Amino acid sequence: MPARSYLVANLRISETGAGATQEQIRDLQRDLRALGYLRSGIDGVFGSGTAFAMKALQNDLLMNDGTGSDGTAPVSIKSYNKGRVSSASGVVDFGLAQCISDMLDDPNFPSLPNTPDPVAENQKIIPTLKAIPSPAAPIPFVLGILMQESGLKHFNEPLRGDEDTYIVVGLDSNATDKTIVTSRGYGAGQYTLFHHPPRREEVTGFILDVAKNVSKTIRELRDKFDSFILGPNGATQADDRLAEIGRGPLRICRYDAADSRYLKDCQQCLRDAGTVDIQSGVTPLHSNTTQTYAPTQYYASGSYQGVPNRALIGCDWPYAVRRYNGSGPNSYHYQVRVLLHMTRL
After folding, report:
1. Strands (DSSP E) found in 44-122
2. What's the pLDDT at 19?
3. In angstroms, what CA-CA distances link 57 with 29, 53, 125, 167, 196?
4. Extents of the domains making up the chain
5. Which residue of 68, 220, 233, 271 has the fewest C-beta atoms within 10 A of its own C-beta?
6. Whole-prediction pTM value?
7. 163: phi > 0 → left, psi -120 to 50 → alpha, else beta; which?
8. Pairing state of beta strands 71-72 and 67-68?
9. What's the CA gap between 97 and 92, in Å, rounded?
10. Shortest CA distance to 17 belongs to which of 49, 59, 40?
11. pLDDT band with cut points at 50, 70 and 90 for residue 91
């Protein structure tokens, strides 16, 4: 069977991209995208993203045995090394090119999906959500999350000069060395896996299919609503909800289930709640803490204007949105941005 890798076996590319033509860099980028190491871009430009992807792949060839906190990958990436990679140098040499070719040739290593028409695929997202007869979570909040996670994109829509039509992927690291990828989010909802590569049933089950992907988001948001706002301990509670509303029963909607506005008229509820301005270093995260909104490694600014007042919205979905992202300072930025996205739908 012919190799699926686009790379020339004797190619050598330095960690700055020197020694390669634009087309050779494109070939490398196609491989890195298919294998899940390049966030985006098949444009022939050896930028910081491509350099990061090279080191992330080399780190996996040295350390990734296929295990993750959420299960085991179908293959161990270390098994492809065979002594050919000794460090995360960022340099493409003959040994690394052989590793890439072996990974792409192995049917047990699922490549990430791409599509010839990403625009058409992305346009399915909103109709898919609206077609769900009885969603477990309000669709406007789900749309706000998808806007924050992926800009409502399941597949990358390339700009001129770019050929990247692979699925949208997010690369995160909780390691000291930030070129070690510890989790990946896939598609419109950026549903996260901590093992790599994904199993084939995960590719077909929610990575490739738009409807299955956004359904994952709905189920995850409902789980955060049910179990991470008024749970039995601090890890399963929302401090902002306790500070602003107290420990009363969860509020799924301000309207009765028989009302046509039930779980649907969220934008009007946001308008009725009024707005607040958040000032970096001044505005507390909630009334029971001295910790304020401030820049983080993910958010450059801690200031926001015209944010819907979550305490007056009349339901507990804003708190579920925050817990969807976690529990630390970044989750408050996430909550604010989702609410702002919702005002623009």
Report:
1. 67-68, 71-72
2. 67
3. 12, 6, 31, 18, 11
4. 22-105, 228-345
5. 233
6. 0.89
7. alpha
8. antiparallel
9. 7
10. 49
11. confident
